[in-house]
Design goal:
By secondary structure, the protein is of the alpha/beta class. The protein contains twelve helices and 21 strands.
Length: 457
């Protein structure tokens, strides 16, 4: 390794890249990181963090309305100022960028500003310099992708939506994944007249069907205008905004169109194609359990490899990568591969979704017989607020083993609740274990340990 400038050269200072760099440096490895945009990657700058801040902002809309039933009188109708939210968010992200910089510096990692290009199995070029490394880690994440159609240049993507100059009073979202449903809820909550367009029959493909249907109905109740089985045919700029024509023939006039149509690996210009580094059919970087590409000295992790596009997954992969390549295993055993089963996730639409394990549909395909326990109820909070918002909780149980193989929730703070339930599902606890657990009263979460009657088999 002494023949190289560094033991590890990381391209991309997002969550996974920074964690891998710091952890490898802690083993004594000489590490450098190259970043051409912003420290913290998608999550910190144009993903999880600002999205959650905006989601908090949007929830105040409901809170103001709900407060009346609890005796609060607001002297005048609340007003929302987009510039205040946007600019406060910008300052918070700057603070987080600084923390990432200090973390790298404190770990002894060299930070280089610029876009690195891989020119050899053990070399990169950046800012006109050639730098060598024993191993090169590609952790550049993804980039928003927008389909081409007439007028698609008038759309904004999920990177741009956080920093709009002015608030769009009429907002249209194209897409049916996490980002689409989250931003439809956020802008609706902030006061925009919001519509969502999705080409499929129902959004959030891959999630539990009952969860998807329940979320659809709750979003409609909150005022989001949903249009399924249609797509955008064209967008035309007009004097008063954007004229959007759908394949169904419907027309809208809006102020902004968010194309939340997915993200693709940000590999362009990295030079991997010239080295013959193998990609998967979807264009993601193909790696093995050691996170090695077809060129073993070139590693990859996070969104760029096509796994679950979640920050905690990238962090876990970074830890495993370092164990494989830089940590001396005293037992002499190869570290176990990362377990991608039962990874919990949340969707911060309104109301929130939290889920872990198998959907009902997946469980029915995998097991001979399953039991479904579900509860659809009005939370205690809304007995006084007057809101008609409801909550869904659901357990999916393998009938033979009695093991809880899936847990799902739609409701306030679903992600917070499911994080705890995820431990139980991963630990392979049974429905009997859930039943034997004394609940916390009065909470919505106690429903997970009080559901006794089978909803269906």
């Amino acid at each position: 390794m002494a023949n190289y400038d560094y033991d590890l050269f990381v391209i991309g200072a997002g969550s996974g890249g920074v964690r891998a760099a710091r952890t490898a440096a802690a083993t004594g490895a000489r590490v450098a990181v190259a970043e051409d945009r912003y420290l913290g990657g998608t999550c910190v700058n144009v993903g999880c963090v600002p999205k959650k801040l905006y989601s908090y902002a949007a929830h105040f809309h409901d809170a103001f309305e709900d407060s009346a039933g609890f005796g609060w009188t607001i002297p005048q109708a609340p007003t929302f100022d987009w510039a205040t939210l946007r600019d406060n968010k910008i300052e918070e992200i700057k603070r987080l960028n600084g923390i990432y910089s200090r973390l790298l510096d404190g770990a002894g990692v060299t930070l280089i500003n610029g876009r690195a290009k891989v020119v050899d199995a053990n070399a990169v070029e950046i800012n006109g310099d050639r730098i060598t490394a024993e191993k090169i880690l590609v952790a550049v994440g993804g980039w928003p992708w927008t389909p081409e159609f007439e007028g698609s240049e008038h759309t904004i993507n999920s990177n741009q939506v956080f920093d709009l100059d002015s608030f769009p009073k009429r907002f249209l979202v194209l897409g049916g994944g996490y980002i689409a449903v989250e931003f439809a809820s956020i802008f609706n909550g902030l006061g925009a007249d919001t519509s969502l367009i999705y080409r499929g029959e129902l959004f959030l493909r891959g999630f539990d069907r009952e969860v998807r249907e329940f979320t659809r109905d709750e979003m409609v109740k909150k005022g989001v205008d949903l249009h399924f089985k249609t797509n955008i045919e064209r967008i035309r700029k007009v004097e008063s905004g954007l004229e959007v024509t759908l394949t169904s023939g419907e027309q809208f006039e809006v102020d902004a169109v968010l194309a939340a149509t997915g993200r693709r690996p940000h590999l362009e210009g990295l030079g991997l194609d010239a080295l013959g580094v193998e990609l998967n059919t979807d264009g993601t970087l193909k790696v093995n359990e050691r996170y090695e590409s077809s060129v073993p000295s070139i590693l990859g992790l996070g969104d760029v490899t096509g796994g679950p596009e979640l920050t905690p997954v990238a962090l876990a992969e970074a830890m495993h990568l370092v164990q494989h390549h830089f940590t001396q295993n005293e037992s002499g055993k190869t570290p176990a591969p990362l377990d991608y089963q039962n990874i919990a996730t949340a969707v911060f639409c309104h109301p929130n979704i939290g889920t872990v394990g198998l959907s009902e549909e997946e469980a029915r395909e995998r097991f001979e017989a399953v039991r479904i326990y579900s509860a659809d109820f009005r939370p205690m909070k809304h007995t006084l607020s007057g809101s008609d918002e409801r909550c869904l909780m659901k357990l999916v149980v393998d009938d033979e083993s009695d093991r809880v193989v899936g847990a799902h929730m739609v409701g306030d703070d679903a992600g917070e609740t499911i994080q705890g339930i995820a431990i139980a599902v991963r630990a392979r606890l049974t429905k009997s274990d859930f039943d034997a657990t004394v609940g916390i009263h009065p909470t919505a979460a106690e429903e997970f340990v009080t559901m006794r009657s089978v909803t269906r088999r």
